[in-house]
């Protein structure tokens, strides 16, 4: 009977250690929650490289400025200023707290982006049809 008691204790000890290990792995690798949503508020600028049906290959150095003026949880809004004027846009940060998308009120395409670090984002614009254009920018918070 003593061997059975020792075996059961050993089995329970292994089970306890395994449960603690799984609990640690869950806590260490859990998805970010809403308190971890990064703030994008601020002014962003940087180099933008594009390719379009009309203008071909172009590189724009600090010719475009993104200003995110308001953010509530994952939703944000701001303005996009460039040589031809200013556009208002609305965006959302995805649950991974790294990816985002924004759309402008008077644009034919949309931007997909990624938060690269606390003060750097990458954003790529895609527009189809007759004025097909693609472009990506790496932007730093000022």
Comma- or semicolon-separated keywords:
alpha+beta; Lipocalin; 8-stranded antiparallel β-barrel; elongated
Give the name of the CATH architecture of the largest domain: Beta Barrel
What is the third-level CATH name, the topology of the largest domain? Lipocalin
Helix and strand element order: HEEEEEEEE
- Placed side by side, the strands forming the largest sheet appear as 1-2-3-4-5-6-7-8
What is the CATH class designation of the largest domain? Mainly Beta
Could you describe the largest sheet, including whether it forms a barrel?
A: 8 strands, antiparallel, barrel
Count all strands and give the number.
8
Q: Strand fraction band?
A: over 45%
- The figure for the number of domains is 2
- What would you report as the Rg, rounded to the nearest angstrom? 24 Å
CATH homologous superfamily heading of the largest domain: Calycin beta-barrel core domain
Description:
The chain has 142 residues and is α+β, with helices and mostly antiparallel strands. The protein folds into 2 domains: 2-30; 35-141, Calycin beta-barrel core domain (Lipocalin, Beta Barrel), CATH 2.40.128. Helix content is 20%, strand content 54%. The protein has one helix at 2-29, and strands at residues 42-52, 56-72, 75-82, 85-93, 99-104, 110-117, 120-127, 133-141. The protein is elongated. The termini are far apart. The model has no long low-confidence stretch (mean pLDDT 82).
């Amino acid at each position: 009977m003593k061997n059975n008691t020792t075996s059961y204790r050993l089995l329970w000890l292994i089970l306890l250690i395994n449960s603690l290990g799984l609990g640690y792995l869950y806590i260490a690798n859990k998805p970010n929650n809403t308190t971890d949503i990064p703030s994008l508020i601020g002014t962003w600028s940087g180099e933008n490289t594009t390719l379009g049906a009309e203008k071909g290959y172009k590189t724009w150095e600090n010719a475009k400025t993104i200003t995110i003026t308001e953010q509530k949880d994952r939703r944000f809004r701001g303005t996009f200023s460039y040589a031809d004027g200013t556009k208002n846009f609305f965006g959302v940060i995805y649950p991974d707290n790294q990816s985002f998308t924004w759309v402008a009120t008077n644009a034919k395409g949309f931007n997909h982006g990624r938060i690269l670090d606390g003060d750097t984002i990458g954003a790529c614009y895609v527009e189809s049809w007759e004025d097909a254009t693609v472009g990506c920018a790496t932007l730093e918070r000022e």
